[in-house]
Amino acid sequence: MNIIEAVIILVLLVLLSNVLGHYLEAIPVSLIQVTLGLLWSVIFHITIPLETDWFLLLFIAPLLFNDGRRFPKSELWTLRGPILANAVLLVFLTTLLGGWLFHLLIPGLPLSVGFALAAILSPTDPVAVTSIAEQVSLPSAIIHLVSGESLINDASGLIGFKYALAAAVTGTFSLWSAAGDFLYTSIAGFVVGFVVMTGLQMLREVLRRSGINDPVFNTVLQLVGPFVIYLGAEAIYASGVIAVVTAGVLAHVSENRIVEDLPEQRLLIERTWDIVVYVLNGIVFIILGDELPSATKATIADPATGTWRAIGYVVVIWLILFILRAVWIYVYGTLSRLSKNWRIEHKNTEPVTVKTAIVSGLTGVRGAITLAGVLTIPATISNGDAFPERSLILFVAAGVIVLSLVIAAVTLPLISRRGAMLLTRGSQVDTLEELTAQEEADDGETVPLMSVDEAKTYLSKTAVRVLESLRRPENQRAAYDLILDYQFIIRRLQMRTQPSEDVKIMIDFEVDIRRIALQGELKRLQELHDAGLVNIWNFRYYRRQIKWRLRNVDAHQRREALPAWRTARRLIRHGLRRLRILMTGNDMVTFRQQRQLVETETAKAAIARLSRFFKVHNAKKNAQQRQSVYHLIVHYRYRIERRHPVTNGSARQLQYETNLRDLRVRALAAERSAVTELLDAGRINAVMAANLRQYVNYSENVLMLGEDLQTEATS
C-alpha cells in the first residue's frame, strides 16, 4: 500500500476509534484502536513495513518531548529523590530481575533478549497513571510520585532497551564499555537537548523583538524542535531520547519567563500538541493491532509455544511486573518515611499501606512508548540469523499492554466509589480537565468544587445578564442574537450536568410551553387570515409549518433534523414558493410583506401567551423552568428583530455587525470577571481557572479571526 494511502487510513481509524469510544466509555480508547487495527489487517491483509529509525523519530521524539512539556515543575523538585528512584532504580531492577525471570520462564529466550523485553515493559503511560491515581484517591504524594516517575521512566526504559537489544543483536556485551557508552550518550544527549532548545528559545525571542511574532510560525517552530533535537543527538551518537526529554522539560520550565507571548499563540501551541499526540498515540495502537496477526500466527504455529502457553506467558509476565512495582512502592515508601527529610517535607501525607502499594502497582499501565520500542526490534541479528523469539516477544509485549489496560479498566470502577474511566495518551482534553475539578484542602479533606460544565454555565449566565443590561432599541437584534447563542450553550451544559430525572422534568416542561406558544401562533395566524391580511398561499404554508411543529411536540419528537438538511430543505421550499408566486402572477413584494407580518405577529402572540402562562404558573419559583421560559421568549424576540423592515439594508447590516462585535467584547469581559469571582470564592481551583480563561480566550480569538477574514474579504 502507498504510504500516503496508509497514513490517511490510519488517521481515519483513529477518528473512528474515538467515535466508538464516546459510546463505549467503559472500554479504553487504546483497546478500541488495537481492535480496529486487528480487523483492518485480518480483513484486508495489509501490513505496514516498519523501519526502526523513522519509527523512533516519528513517534518517540514528539511524544517524549510533549511529556517533558507537561512535567510538574514543583513536584519535580519536591519529590526529586523518589521520582528518580522510581524512574531509574525501579527500571534498572525491573530490567535485571524481570529479565532474568523472563529468561527462566521462557525456554530458549536468551538472557539479553529477556533484559530487552523487561526494559521496554518498564515505562508506564503518564496519563493513564495520573487518571487512575487521582480517581482512586491515592495520597497526594503518591499521585505526584507515580505521575512524575512515568514521565522519566520512558527515557530510562528506552536506554536500557537499546543496550540489551544491541547485546542481543551483536552477541557481545561488555559492562565497562556499556557503562562508558551510557555516560557519554546520556551526558551528550542532555547537552544537545539543553543547547538546541536554548538556541530555539533565543531564536524565538530575537524574532519576536524583530516583530516576527506570528503564532502559526512559532507553533511550527516548536513542532519541528523535537525532530531536529533527536536527529542532532543521534548524529553524534548521543541519546536522542534524553535530548528530547531534556528539551521538553526546559521548554516547560522557561515557559513562564516568556511573558510577551500572545494568548492565542499559547492556545494554538497547546491545541496543536493535543492534535499531534492524539493522532500519533492512536496510530501506534492501530499499528499494534495490524502487527498482531503476524506475531500471533508465528507464535501459535510454533510447536514449542502454542496458544495457551503464549497467553500464560503474558499473564505471568504481567504478574511479575505488577509484583515488582507494588513491592518497590511499599518498601521504598516505608523506608522513605523513616528518613528525616521525608517527615519534614511530607508531614501531612498518609503512610504507604499495602492497599496503596497494590493500587500503585495497578497504575503500571503500559502504553505507546512500550509499543513503539518493541516494534523496532530488527528481524535479523548481525550474523544474518533471525532475531531469537521476535514474534513471541511482540506477542508478549502486546499482550501485556492489552492486559494492563483491561485490568486497570476493570478494577478502577471497583476501587473508586465514583464512576471512573481509564485515560491514556491521546484522550480527549475536556475529559482530562474534569480531573481537575477537585483539590485537597490543608486538612486532607476533599473540598467539592464546581465541575467544568457548571463553571461554564455560570460564565454564560453572567454574560447574558450583562447583555440584558446593555440591550437598547438600536442594538436589540445583536443583543438577542448573542443571548440566544448563550442560551443554547447553557441548555446544552445543563443537560450534561443535571441528573437524568431532572432532565426529564425539564424536557416535559419545555414541551408544555412550546405547545402553548405554538397554539398562540396558530390562533393569531387564523385571525390575520380572517381579517384579509394574509392570502391563502401564505396562510396554508404557515399553518402547515405550525401544525407540523405541534405534532412533533405532542409526539415528544425532540430530535431536530440535521442543520445541513434543514438548510437544503428550506432553500428548496423557498425556491418552489418563489416559482409558484411567479407562475400565478402574484407580487413578490406583497408576498414578502405578508411573510414579515405573519412571523412578527405570531411571535408577539406566542410571547403574550408565554407571559400569561408565566404569571399564573409557579415557574417563577423554579430556576430551571424560569430559564426555559426565558429562552423561548428570547427566541421569539429575536425573530421579531430579524423581521424588522429594512430601509437601508447595507447601513443596517453594518450597524448590526458593529453592535454584535461590541456586545461580544463586553460579554467576554464579563466571562473573564466571572472566572476571577469563582476563583476568589473558592468554587474553582487555579488549574480550572486557567482552563476557563483559555476557553474565553479561544472565543475571543475566534471573534478576532472572523473580523480578520471579513476585513480581507472586503479589502
TrEMBL record:
Membrane topology recorded in Swiss-Prot or TrEMBL: Multi-pass membrane protein
Main localisation: membrane
Transmembrane segments: 37-64, 84-106, 158-176, 182-200, 235-253, 273-290, 310-335, 356-381, 393-415
InterPro entries to which the protein is assigned, alphabetical: Cation/H_exchanger_CPA1 (IPR018422), Cation/H_exchanger_TM (IPR006153)
Protein localization: Cell membrane
Keywords: Cell membrane, Ion transport, Membrane, Sodium, Sodium transport, Transmembrane, Transmembrane helix, Transport
Domain Cation/H+ exchanger transmembrane: 11-415
Pfam families attached to this UniProt entry: Na_H_Exchanger (PF00999)
Gene3D superfamilies per record: 6.10.140.1330
Superkingdom classification of source: Bacteria
Listed name of the protein: Sodium:proton antiporter
Organism: Furfurilactobacillus milii
Lineage of origin: Bacteria, Bacillati, Bacillota, Bacilli, Lactobacillales
